[in-house]
């Protein structure tokens, strides 16, 4: 009996001997799944040995894929980091290399989920050469924002976050097992495809590129400041680099992560232009308000001069009454009428003087000289 137990233990796989089952786990279902996984892996290894890959055919198929503009446009990534940017072959290029290479598996599996995090394993497996590369990562169920991490509640958002983080790690596992000459050949061919042929002028491609960036608020001046020269001097290698930046922005990376200095300079220029416009409008309003203010000051200085003859009139009336004799009553009643007539005859000369500065057409020469001084100031 003991010999049978020893024989069964030797036939088990290493990972089956170390597996720890939970208290409420279905032991039979786990054992069936383990046996199925072992049989599937053994079958794949047998097929890989029975149908080995043809590297020449794999290279030909990969070069054919890299000549497609639609594929070459997504073959590179570009992410901001430490004030600069990091670029390289994207997960799409790595997946195409693995597909053409053949007898190759890759992917990720979620090992556990506890609260607000998940333990994920990413792997790549060259079945023909039996090379295996894996890595375990912890994915937090949060979304990074400018205001700090925000927790994810929806199941779809959590799954998308896991897939996004895992795909970046899978890219590294695939490229670690691929022949370096094959990956470098794919990168070079994709760059040639992005650069285009000599039949299409580079100015047309630059114009098309600026139109694509304009949809995300990146203007021509931003691109020129980023490149350090005018767009008319753009080279084909720079177009390839900008293609990677455009892919990152299209996938959700803020343009400010790549064009922070350019956007800040543009903002400063707009602020300076706004200040200059405000200063010009203030100077214009002050210049237009100056003539009205001067007219008000002139009218205030002219009113005391107009009131002075009226005071002389009030002083003249008592003197005329004091000079009249009191002996003959009939003459007293008549002489005030004569005095009033004299005052009325004298009054028009006094009242016409203050009316002239108020603009009834009879302005003295001093007023015309004042208007000329206002035009100079």
Question: Would you kindly provide a written description of the structure presented here, covering whatever features stand out?
Answer:
With about 375 residues, this protein is an alpha+beta fold. Among the domains are: about 45-185, no CATH class; about 200-265, no CATH class; about 315-325 and about 330-350, no CATH class. The chain has 14 helices and seven strands. A hairpin with a 2-residue loop joins strand 3 and strand 4. Helix 4 (about 55-65) runs antiparallel to helix 6 and helix 10 (about 220-225) packs across helix 12. The radius of gyration is 47 Å and the shape is elongated. The chain starts with a helix and ends with a helix.
Fold blueprint:
Elements: H1 2-11, H2 14-17, H3 27-50, H4 55-66, H5 69-72, E1 76-81, E2 84-89, H6 91-101, E3 104-114, E4 117-126, E5 131-140, E6 142-145, E7 148-151, H7 155-177, H8 180-195, H9 202-214, H10 220-227, H11 236-250, H12 260-322, H13 329-355, H14 365-376
Antiparallel strand pairs: 1-2, 3-4, 4-5, 6-7
Helix pairs in contact: 4-6, 4-8, 6-7, 9-11, 10-12, 12-13
